[in-house]
Amino acid sequence: MYTASELKKGLRIKIDNDPYILTEFNFVKPGKGQALYRCKLKNMLNGNQFERTFRSVDTFETADLHEKKMQYLYKEEGKYCFMDNETYEQIYLTEEQMDDAKNFLIDNIEAEILLFEDKAIGISLPNFVDLTVTEAEPWAKGDTVSGATKPVKLQTGYTIQVPTFVNEGEKIRVDTRTGEYMTRVKG
Amino acid sequence: MDNSISDNTFLLARKSDALHLRASLIQNIRIFFINKNFLEIETPVRIPAPAPEENIEALPSGDWFLQTSPELCMKRLLAAGYRLIFQLSKCFRAGERGKLHLPEFTMLEWYVAGFDYQQLMSQCEEMIISAACDLGFSNRLHWQGKQINLASPWERITVQQAFGKYAPVTMKEALRKGIFDEILVEHVEPNLGMNKPTFLYDYPASLGALARLKESDKSLAERFELYIGGLELANGFSELTDGGEQRQRFAKAQKLRAQKGYAAYPLPEKFLVALNDLPASAGIAVGIDRLAMLFAGVSSIDDIITFPPESL
Q1: Distance of alpha carbon B93 from the chain centroid
Q2: Could you give the number of structural domains in chain B?
Q3: Contact between B190 and B230 (Cβ < 8 Å)
Q4: How far apart, in Å, are the Cα atoms of B308 and each of A92, B11, B93?
Q5: Distance from CA of B176 to the nearest CA of A (A)
Q6: Does B145 reach chain A within 8 Å, measured CB to CB?
Q7: Which of B112, B158, B226, B257 has the most CB within a 10 Å radius?
């Protein structure tokens, strides 16, 4: 059970027997008015989205979903195949079900496959994934203090904003929840 | 090659332009008020008795509280004959955190003896246009994809008119159904101050706890809010100058607070006594962080302050 003030982007709740994920969450409070939570919710089964405003006294049921650790095997005909390393059971996720995760997917990565009534419906990657920069403009010395950023391409084809001092061939850590650059990593 | 710059340092360094703009804005505002013969004052940040308001929660500080606004002390100065006063101070509100909210924020508050809320709207308009001009902005402001014309006169629309224009229910229906805040946030606010800054005024009396009621319609308070690009920037009103009535309104607010399980504050007795000496006047509070956001073109309040609480 959650109260509205505990809601945050990415949280999964149950409304009318369907699992929903919060895709947007904004705290608002009109002058002298009460605290309100403007949320965008996405139905995790059919992808339908809607906006709703909650009050801090509103409560929500936790969506009864479970996750299973599985390993990414390959992509075929627009479907992503994952395997349970203990039972060798394989499942497939569509491009749509993969959502942003496809931007951070590397070979053999272990991910949490989301199951609703034993059916695979989604994926969550580790919060941080290390990816190699495959295309970047060279670093111009002296740019660091201005705090400027530049776009670079990662091994997955994903384009990301990073500080100007990051070079091609280096590995960077990416927060898969926000899709944002965190830090450089050695090795 | 020096690659030792840390990511936290990088985030702070990136704020340089915004922080310079913020500093200039505050300096320009000071000069505006000094040129108009206002007295800059400082009142205590720690106070024993904040105004009991239904939806504003103070942070405790020892046996006292951190101010949620400098309102009560400033009105005591006004009652003592200081007719033109302004203050830039830190204010604190528990549980307020979001893209536009910080539990600790910077507020500009000023009072003018002899003014009513309509005159104060004009002065607020003059102050922001002057600040924009000093910052090198012409009449145009670009914020989050919106183009706002700052040229005078700004739009003024009553709450009732705005509900009629933008909302699926009237103001009275929204109040009766207890969904005033929801309708305001979902339907009205996103339309305010889009081409020109907008003053939304004449609020329901229940939403102006320290404001004077309108002589021609006692169901309304002489209160206004300023919106630019949908962003709420300022709250002002003609002051209630009747200590007895203020005491009754505080008692009502205390009851509502108790029902919600909020902390009970002692009544600000010295303020209530002083209120009877208050001349007819008007006062306004402007969120400096948000005003600076607008000029700096940033979408999050975190981008216009040095250290959001989570970064400490």
Answers
A1: 13
A2: 1
A3: yes
A4: 42, 11, 14
A5: 15
A6: no
A7: B226
Distance from CA of B14 to the nearest CA of A (A): 4
First-residue to last-residue Cα distance in chain B: 29
CB within 8 Å of B305: residues ≥ 6 apart: B102, B289
Q: Do residues B114 and B279 lie in contact, with contact meaning Cβ atoms separated by under 8 Å?
A: yes
Q: Which residues 6+ apart lie within 8 Å of A117 measured at CB?
A: none
- What residues make up the domain containing B240? 3-311
Please give the span between the terminal C-alpha atoms of chain A, in angstroms, as a whole number. 43
Enumerate the residues of chain B whose CB falls inside 8 A of the CB of residue A173. none
> Quick one: A137 and A117 in the same domain?
no
User: By the CB < 8 Å criterion, does B211 face chain A?
Assistant: no
Phi, psi of A109 (to 5 degrees): -65, 140
* CATH number assigned to the domain comprising residue A152: 2.40.50.140
Closest CA to B191 of B142, B157, B217, B222: B157
B264 touching chain A per CB within 8 A: no
Q: Are A56 and A94 contained in the same domain?
A: no
Q: Give me the residue label for tokens 């308009």.
A: B125
* B68 in Cβ contact with B91 (< 8 Å): yes
- Kindly give, in sequence order, each residue whose CB lies less than 8 Å from that of residue B23, ignoring residues fewer than 6 positions away: none
Interface of A with B in 52-81 (CB under 8 A): 53
Quote the ipTM score: 0.89
Q: Do B259 and B96 form a contact (C-beta atoms < 8 A)?
A: no
List, in sequence order, every residue forming a beta bridge with A76; answer none if it has no partner: A79
Interface touch B181/A165, C-beta < 8 Å: no
Residue B206 pLDDT > 80: yes
* pLDDT tens, position by position, B47-103: 999 999 999 999 999 999 999 999 999 999 999 999 999 999 999 999 999 999 999
Task: Identify the residue among A29, A56, A133, A173 best suited for mutation to test binding to B, counting B beta carbons within 10 A and taking the highest.
Answer: A29
Which residue of A33, A35, A53 is in closest CB contact with B186? Answer: A53
Please name the residue that has the structure tokens 């939570």: A37
Nearest CB to B181 within list A33, A139, A163: A33
Q: Of A29, A46, A62, which closes a domain? A: A62
Tell me what pLDDT residue A6 has: 85
- Say if the Cβ atoms of A30 and B232 lie within 8 Å: yes
CA distance linking residue B77 with residue B70, whole number of Å: 11
Q: Hey, of B183, B186, B222, which one would you mutate to test binding to chain A, going by the most A CBs within 10 A of its CB?
A: B186
List pLDDT tens digits, range A129-187: 999 999 998 876 665 556 788 999 999 999 999 998 899 999 999 999 899 999 999 86
